């Protein structure tokens, strides 16, 4: 849902555009001011623990408050290439750098703390140790209450703030505003019926409204149309596009180009949904002998294993040339296996995959690459060329050389921090070859030149 064009279009740009959480916004602002004033007596903890339902604007609100209060935001993510401890170790330098170079205040934001806790069991203890003893920067943890993760030790040491869902009236105003702006025409429809499926989730709301516009275009949306929309979206957050793509894979003979087109609409979720429902479709829908069914299942698993081996290498090397092969193995092959014999379509249920989560460290690498490329004005496809230069000047050369110092100053002028360089080194295609050279000492030496004032 987060890839929706409308999600970006209608995301609030100013804190005054946020509704339903005025009291929380004031509390957070006062807490941040205690850091700007360097007055520890005005706060009971260096950490905020923000919790609330999915899609109600927690991240956007925090981002807008920090921007308004002129805080530089440093995000900490779950990342297999850069441990939580390593990310935290660099915060001391950030704090010192901010003080001595007279830069704006820094806030540490951990957007998906539930994922980090679930993936790194010692993370709560690490975070508590840092914000209580080692680092006096403000920490903001954002927790999705839809996830049942044990966070009590962390929330106990933090100031707890619970974000409210949008009120019915505010969500109606928002929906009406979008309908008017996008010229969506309704025929005597009770908005309360639509509000029920929106679940007070702005991200879901925009995604559903965008699909309504896409499918009905200039046509007037009737009560019957609305009932059809509701029946689709009540299926555990499956979008119209994803639902249609899955049905086509299961029930239509497609050529490679068409199946790849469907794969590219959602290259993460579609293969996972296919996988989750594949065996039951083979078992109940194909009119074949048990032996033939087992042979198809065996073939599928061989192909899907190859697909994920290739996909792992794609993310490891940041080389996307083989992406279509992953699509063929994970989407085209199941389509052929499911539609090469007679069927009875007894099994029609779509079970959502337990595998996919909106948080995946691979996405953070892509987000990071996009961010760095934007800062230094390069195409994302040239990111590995940038990583080569980082290795050449910082990892493999003498850091005292003029070229290294000049390039470091250039990167600092573009708001590139040492943590960015550290991550670039670790996700580079060169890391496997030179990881033994990138020692703790080398890391600290590089860090020092990024702490030096330009």
UniProtKB/TrEMBL annotation:
Keywords: DNA replication. One of its GO terms (molecular function) is DNA binding. One of its GO terms (biological process) is DNA replication. PANTHER family: CHROMOSOME TRANSMISSION FIDELITY FACTOR 18, REPLICATION FACTOR C SUBUNIT 1. This is Uncharacterized protein. It comes from viral metagenome.
């Amino acid at each position: 849902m987060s890839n929706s064009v409308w999600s970006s279009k209608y995301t609030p740009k100013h804190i005054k555009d946020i509704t339903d959480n005025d009291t929380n916004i004031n509390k957070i602002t006062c807490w941040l001011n205690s850091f700007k004033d360097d007055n520890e007596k005005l706060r009971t903890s260096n950490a905020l623990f923000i919790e609330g339902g999915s899609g109600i604007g927690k991240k956007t609100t925090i981002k807008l408050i920090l921007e308004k209060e002129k805080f530089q935001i440093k995000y900490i993510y779950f990342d297999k290439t850069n441990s939580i401890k390593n990310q935290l170790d660099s915060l001391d330098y950030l704090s010192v750098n901010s003080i001595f170079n007279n830069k704006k205040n820094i806030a540490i934001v951990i957007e998906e703390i539930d994922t980090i806790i679930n993936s790194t069991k010692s993370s709560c203890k690490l975070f508590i140790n840092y914000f209580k003893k080692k680092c006096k920067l403000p920490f903001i943890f954002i927790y999705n209450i839809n996830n049942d993760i044990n966070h009590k030790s962390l929330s106990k040491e933090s100031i707890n703030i619970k974000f409210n869902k949008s009120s019915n009236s505010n969500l109606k105003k928002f929906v009406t505003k979008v309908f008017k702006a996008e010229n969506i025409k309704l025929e005597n429809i009770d908005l309360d019926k639509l509000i029920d499926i929106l679940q007070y989730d702005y991200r879901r709301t925009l995604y559903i409204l965008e699909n309504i516009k896409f499918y009905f275009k200039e046509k007037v949306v009737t009560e019957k149309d609305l009932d059809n929309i509701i029946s689709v979206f009540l299926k555990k957050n499956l979008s119209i596009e994803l639902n249609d793509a899955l049905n086509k894979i299961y029930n239509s003979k497609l050529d490679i180009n068409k199946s790849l087109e469907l794969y590219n609409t959602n290259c993460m979720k579609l293969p996972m949904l296919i996988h989750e429902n594949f065996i039951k479709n083979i078992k109940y829908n194909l009119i074949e002998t048990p032996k033939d069914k087992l042979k198809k299942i065996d073939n599928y698993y061989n192909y899907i294993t190859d697909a994920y081996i290739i996909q792992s290498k794609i993310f490891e090397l940041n080389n996307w040339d083989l992406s279509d092969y992953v699509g063929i193995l994970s989407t085209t092959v199941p389509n052929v296996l499911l539609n090469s014999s007679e069927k009875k379509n007894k099994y029609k249920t779509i079970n959502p995959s337990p595998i996919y989560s909106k948080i995946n460290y691979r996405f953070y690498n892509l987000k990071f690459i996009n961010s760095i490329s934007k800062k230094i004005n390069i195409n994302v496809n040239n990111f590995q060329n940038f990583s080569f230069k980082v290795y050449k000047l910082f990892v493999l050369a003498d850091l005292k050389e003029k070229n290294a110092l000049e390039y470091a100053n250039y990167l600092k002028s573009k708001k590139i921090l040492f943590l960015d360089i550290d991550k670039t080194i670790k996700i580079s295609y060169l890391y496997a070859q030179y990881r033994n050279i990138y020692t703790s000492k080398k890391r600290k030496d590089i860090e020092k030149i990024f702490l030096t004032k330009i």
